[in-house]
Specification:
The protein has two domains: 82 residues; 59 residues. The longest helix is centred in the middle third of the chain and has 13 residues. It contains eleven helices and no strands. The chain is mostly helical and 176 residues long. The chain is globular and about 50 Å long.
Length: 176
């Protein structure tokens, strides 16, 4: 038995070789706070609301939580509420979660690995998806942003979801 991890769905490996895919979702909030507790210690229990907010601002992603915990332990005088506040601005969030400029650990760098594997049209779709004001981008809104058909936009959203750059609330929509 072999375990393969990837930022891609490895659809070819599943289709060609019969691999079994196990998609992992975001950590449940309680587990995300538990990870912070294991990494930071009693400060999490002293400020449970701030710890939950910090976990939410890290999108409950293990790497982002670990980087935030590293910041919290490096600056023990900084409250968890202050750190969560620094992560409130979505435009600055990846700058804060930079892991001391460690290119192999910074959250921005990890996302860029997936982005670099996109073709030009999917990369454009990803950049433009950031302009959508709401939390859910369906194929019709994506089509309006991209200036294309809903079918084409749906396929591009599928590419982004397979690269784990977005979450597809309804599963694949591309039937091309």
């Amino acid at each position: 038995m072999t375990l393969v991890t990837s930022r891609d769905t490895l659809a070819g490996l599943v289709a060609r070789d019969g691999a079994q895919r196990l998609d992992l979702d975001l950590l449940p909030l309680a587990d995300a706070v538990g990870l912070l507790r294991a990494l930071i210690g009693s400060r999490v229990d002293a400020a449970p609301g701030a710890a939950a907010e910090l976990a939410a601002r890290c999108s409950r992603l293990p790497l982002a939580l670990r980087v935030a915990a590293e910041i919290a332990t490096s600056y023990p005088a900084r409250s968890l509420a202050d750190l969560a506040g620094e992560l409130e601005d979505q435009q600055q969030r990846l700058d804060v979660l930079d892991a001391g400029h460690d290119e192999d650990t910074a959250v921005r760098a990890v996302f860029s690995w997936s982005y670099r594997h996109l073709d030009a049209s999917a990369a454009r779709a990803f950049r433009l998806a950031g302009l959508h004001p709401g939390p859910v981008l369906d194929k019709y809104a994506a089509a309006a942003l991209l200036g294309t058909t809903a079918a084409c936009a749906g396929c591009l959203l599928d590419v982004l979801a397979r690269g784990y750059l977005i979450q597809h609330p309804d599963g694949p929509v591309c039937h091309a």
